[in-house]
């Protein structure tokens, strides 16, 4: 009897425990939210605060607007109910005295209230600008970063597009020019933009309907003329960019070869190349960068680059030491000659400048390529995927640069292979007699 009672109660206790367990499984989520079971740590709260406040609110392009909006944002953060706990708020208020609410004018407070009414996730560029503070507080008399940024004269970029068939645009041809007198000379006569187009048609080996052409110029009159010259064209698409940098242009041939002049000039060229490339590229798979004063080339040279890009054939000559890892083709260049020089382009080299392109050329035939660590820009093939990943022409000496100083090498075309390698792609040169001809 005693034993039967005790076994009945054991069964009851076990059933009760079972029901409890089932209830627990059903009603308590597998990954309980931290707020239900554990108090959120500062880290958790900061993380979610960032998600709702930061990640969705930074699409602005105009840096002057952005800078002001940052101040606006910081100011509203002070009033925000859900402001981040612990050190984020402290950090803002201790490092930026200008955000002190007591110093806000009535107008600023109205702006602030308006922002709160509209929520924090609106793009910062849509927020109204704060009026300038009156010159009465110590903060407004001291020069602030905001005013410096606002005074920067941003270059103008004007962009014209003429599309015949966007989905056929496969080969993006890019050319940076200064003005209409920079298309080189043929037999002592200045070449014109229309004759550059004829040259492309005759030598690139690319079908016109697959070409997407984009020209950058720095003068308004050239811009107008290129736009009208391309009002009808046989290409998939044609684009003209007017880009007016604020740095003074070429100061005359006398200075051209001084090191500092070269650095300034190459920085300008690198930036212009990037502006054109990033503005023009949409869905094209391949990019061909031409120097505007390339006046002739081996017929079919672009088609040969495409062939090597999709089915690379690398020299096995014992005279060329290949890199330890053969990287897939990212960029390809070709020998550049001018009237008097067989290989004009001194920016194409290998083995940290120990070997120039002309040292390697004899060991690769026309069906082969040889490795390079640096390229020039006379004609440059670039796999467009790399540009989508962020590849660009460095505008400073990127190789060996540290936080406080520039490096010793790798500006403009000379740095692009260095960057491509970090993305896992290599640079190559066309062997044999493939070449372009540079105007003298
Ligand atoms: C546009 O290009 C695509 C891809 O090459 C082609 O299939 C299509 O027929 C072209 N459309 C016209 C109107 O030419
Ligand atoms: C392009 O070249 C072809 C021959 O390859 C020629 O028939 C055509 O007229 C040229 N077009 C232009 C615009 O020069
Ligand atoms: C190329 O390599 C071969 C074999 O190593 C050697 O005999 C020849 O001298 C080299 N040629 C040049 C031009 O360096
Ligand atoms: C690669 O180059 C060799 C010559 O060195 C040539 O015989 C061969 O046909 C080439 N292969 C391709 C796919 O072009």
UniProtKB/TrEMBL annotation:
It comes from the Eukaryota. Residues 139-149 have a biased composition (Polar residues). InterPro entries: Mannan_Polymerase_Subunit, Nucleotide-diphossugar_trans. Keywords: Membrane, Transmembrane, Transmembrane helix. Residues 54-150 are annotated as: Disordered. The chain crosses the membrane at residues 12-30. Residues 106-129 have a biased composition (Basic and acidic residues). Belongs to the ANP1/MMN9/VAN1 family. This is Nucleotide-diphospho-sugar transferase.
């Amino acid at each position: 009897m005693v034993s039967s009672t005790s076994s009945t109660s054991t069964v009851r206790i076990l059933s009760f425990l079972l029901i409890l367990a089932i209830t627990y499984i059903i009603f308590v989520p597998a990954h309980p939210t931290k707020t239900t079971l554990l108090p959120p740590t500062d880290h958790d709260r900061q993380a979610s605060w960032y998600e709702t406040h930061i990640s969705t609110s930074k699409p602005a392009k105009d840096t002057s607007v952005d800078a002001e909006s940052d101040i606006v944002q910081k100011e509203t953060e002070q009033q925000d109910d859900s402001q981040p706990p612990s050190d984020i708020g402290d950090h803002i208020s201790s490092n930026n005295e200008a955000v002190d609410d007591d110093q806000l004018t009535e107008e600023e407070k109205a702006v602030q209230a308006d922002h709160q009414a509209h929520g924090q996730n609106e793009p910062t560029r849509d927020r109204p600008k704060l009026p300038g503070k009156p010159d009465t507080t110590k903060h407004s008399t001291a020069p602030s970063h905001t005013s410096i940024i606002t005074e920067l004269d941003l270059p103008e970029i004007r962009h014209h597009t003429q599309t015949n068939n966007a989905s056929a645009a496969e080969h993006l041809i890019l050319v940076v020019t200064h003005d209409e007198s920079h298309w080189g000379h043929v037999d002592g006569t200045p070449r014109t933009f229309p004759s550059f187009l004829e040259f492309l048609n005759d030598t690139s080996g690319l079908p016109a309907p697959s070409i997407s052409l984009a020209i950058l110029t720095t003068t308004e009159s050239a811009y107008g003329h290129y736009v009208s010259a391309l009002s009808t064209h046989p290409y998939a698409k044609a684009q003209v960019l007017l880009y007016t940098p604020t740095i003074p242009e070429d100061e005359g041939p006398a200075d051209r070869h001084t090191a500092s002049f070269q650095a300034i000039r190459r920085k300008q060229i690198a930036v212009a190349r990037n502006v054109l490339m990033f503005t023009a590229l949409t869905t094209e798979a391949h990019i061909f960068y031409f120097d505007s004063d390339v006046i002739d080339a081996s017929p079919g040279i672009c088609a040969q680059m495409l062939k090597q890009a999709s089915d690379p054939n690398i020299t096995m000559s014992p005279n060329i030491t290949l890199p330890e890892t053969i990287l897939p083709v990212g960029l390809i260049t070709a020998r550049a000659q001018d009237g008097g020089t067989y290989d004009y382009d001194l920016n194409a080299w290998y083995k940290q400048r120990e070997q120039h392109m002309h040292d390697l050329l004899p060991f690769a035939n026309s069906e082969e390529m040889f490795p390079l660590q640096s390229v020039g820009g006379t004609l440059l093939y670039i796999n467009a995927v790399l540009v989508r990943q962020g590849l660009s022409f460095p505008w400073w000496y990127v190789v060996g640069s540290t936080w406080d100083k520039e490096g010793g090498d790798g500006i403009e075309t000379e740095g692009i292979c260095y960057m491509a390698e970090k993305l896992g792609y290599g640079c190559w040169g066309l062997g044999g007699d493939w070449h372009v001809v540079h105007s003298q």
